[in-house]
Design a protein that fits this description.
With 163 residues, the protein is an alpha+beta fold. The protein has a single domain, classed as Nuclear Transport Factor 2, Chain: A, CATH 3.10.450.50. Helix content is 33%, strand content 34%. It contains 6 helices and 7 strands, in the order ααααββααβββββ. Strands 1, 2, 3, 4, 5, 6 and 7 form a 7-stranded mixed beta sheet that branches. It is globular. This is SgcJ/EcaC family oxidoreductase. Keywords: Signal. InterPro entries: DUF4440 (IPR027843), NTF2-like_dom_sf (IPR032710), Steroid_delta5-4_isomerase (IPR011944).
């Protein structure tokens, strides 16, 4: 009997037999997860903080490339209202995402990695910045049948060889 149990667990652990979380995710979930990016992107384009945070959980944790951290959807919305009021920050345009990688940790937890390029943004002194390659890592949970962003970390890629 023990040999049968050991063989079963050995087969279950092998890559040929194991089932990944991706295989357990119902059809259409990847698109639903990616759909949460639309309110963020449109909110930025229109300077609408309420729209930008529409798909964030009440208990979200958000940190931008400059180290600003907000630990609730309400805090994030208030922070974005300030950010959207800064003309130098809002100068320029963001291109579409150069990639959007979705990974399902479980059928109810996913991560989304994406990158966009922001061109024409300015410093607070009015100088135009070089294009910013901005990376986003979001963690999402499916709560009450709806995907919400529970964590969002933003970082900026530096040009190779620059400080």
């Amino acid at each position: 009997m023990w040999k049968t149990i050991i063989v079963f667990f050995a087969l279950a652990a092998s890559s040929d037999f194991a089932i990944s979380a991706e295989e357990l995710v119902p059809e259409g979930e990847r698109e639903a997860v990616l759909g949460t990016l639309e309110s963020w992107n449109k909110g930025w384009r229109t300077k609408d903080a309420a729209l930008a945070v529409a798909d964030y959980a009440e208990d979200t944790d958000w940190t931008n490339a400059f180290g600003d951290r907000f630990q609730s959807r309400g805090e994030l919305q208030k922070g974005l209202e300030v950010i959207f009021g800064l003309d130098f920050v809002m100068a320029g345009e963001s291109a579409g995402n150069s990639y959007q990688d979705v990974t399902f940790i479980t059928p109810e937890v996913a991560t989304v990695r994406s990158q966009l390029v922001r061109s024409g943004q300015q410093t607070d002194s009015g100088q135009t910045m070089r294009d910013r390659h901005i990376n986003h890592l979001r963690v999402l949970e499916k709560r009450n049948g709806r995907w919400v962003i529970t964590s969002h970390l933003i970082s900026q890629a530096k040009e190779k060889g620059s400080l």
